[in-house]
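Regression test case RT-17, inverse folding.

Input:
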């Protein structure tokens, strides 16, 4: 019985620790950004990376089976009149609380404390862009579409390959992304440990289910894995791999992970990764421009090469299955989780990266965005 309460207490302790660290980002940087916690996270990532398939689904399945077996034993004990219904429910609730407490403790230790650390703007030494004029957005969007078209031609040899950009095996993109990490860490003066090797990205075993939930990728803290869908369009793959690799390196906020993924993919030796980065940037800039200058936004989209336009259409078609009830439910859960960890915008924070990228262009020069 004691271990039940210990498990519950661990979860409460971790939650209180997170609240205290959130109020002191500088302390959180020391606790969660240096020392044994990031070392533990990296060791776990490297260890799970030895296994060629995703372990995350097996962990989830093990937790579900454990709860199902416990429930079945409780029902059996009641039927055999070994204990009463009320006592069985009490035991079951305490056992569930124990498991939830242990999982919560591990979640915060391996991931949740990262939300309390300072954001990427502080690490880069820049101020968030805040308000951006239509002229500035239009200028950057025009440069982006020119670079996007050029990269498409570099990948395919023409402005229209006649089919959507195919995705290669993940392993072919990994070396190029590692070269991108090395350049970004050096160029922007980031902590050297961000360039250390982690377990390479893998694909979900449950890709069809995750796609229906609208999940392109995930960092699974309990195994340290960076996971992406096995059937992602080629134009998305480099960015999504870079995004989950950023999470592996302790970048918790989604907008920050998007920014680093873009910078890394844009700095990659692989032209497909660079194309993926510019596809993301152009979409973000056009989306922001549409809110304040829709005519100019339409003009930018019309400049895309036919093959580029096909890739955008393919992405919209790819995510169509996620427009149903399952996708909406997953979005609500993700929204609640992000808000509970100090990100009031929730899932809208995924779009927030455009302002940081504009700030990067102002502070470091536009060429950092258009390599």
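Golden output:
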């Amino acid at each position: 019985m004691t271990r039940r309460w210990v498990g519950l207490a661990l979860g409460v302790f971790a939650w209180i620790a997170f609240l205290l660290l959130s109020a002191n980002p500088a302390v959180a940087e020391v606790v969660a950004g240096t020392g044994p916690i990031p070392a533990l996270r990296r060791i776990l990532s490297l260890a799970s990376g030895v296994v060629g398939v995703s372990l995350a689904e097996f962990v989830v399945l093990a937790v579900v089976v454990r709860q199902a077996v416990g429930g079945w034993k409780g029902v059996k004990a009641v039927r055999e009149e070994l204990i009463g219904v009320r006592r069985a429910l009490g035991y079951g609730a305490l056992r569930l609380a124990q498991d939830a407490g242990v999982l919560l403790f591990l979640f915060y230790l391996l991931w949740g404390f990262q939300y309390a650390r300072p954001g990427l703007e502080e690490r880069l030494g820049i101020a968030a862009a805040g308000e951006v004029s239509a002229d500035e957005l239009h200028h950057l969007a025009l440069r982006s579409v020119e670079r996007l078209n050029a990269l498409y031609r570099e990948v395919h040899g023409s402005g229209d390959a006649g089919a959507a950009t195919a995705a290669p095996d993940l392993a072919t993109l990994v070396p190029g992304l590692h070269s991108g990490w090395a350049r970004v860490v050096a160029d922007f003066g980031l902590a050297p440990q961000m360039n250390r090797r982690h377990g390479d990205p893998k694909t979900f075993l449950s890709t069809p289910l995750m796609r229906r939930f609208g999940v392109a990728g995930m960092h699974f803290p309990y195994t340290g894995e960076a996971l992406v869908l096995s059937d992602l369009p080629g134009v998305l793959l480099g960015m999504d791999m870079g995004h989950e690799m950023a999470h592996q390196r302790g970048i918790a906020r989604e907008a920050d992970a998007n920014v680093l993924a873009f910078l890394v993919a844009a700095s990659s030796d692989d032209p497909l990764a660079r194309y993926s980065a510019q596809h993301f940037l152009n979409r973000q800039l056009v989306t922001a421009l549409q809110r304040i200058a829709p005519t100019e936004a339409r003009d930018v989209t019309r400049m895309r090469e036919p093959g580029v336009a096909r890739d955008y259409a393919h992405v919209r078609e790819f995510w169509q299955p996620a427009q149903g009830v399952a996708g909406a439910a997953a979005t609500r859960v993700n929204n609640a989780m992000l808000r509970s960890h100090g990100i009031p915008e929730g899932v809208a924070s995924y779009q927030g990266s455009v302002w940081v990228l504009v700030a990067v262009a102002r502070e470091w020069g536009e060429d950092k965005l258009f390599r």
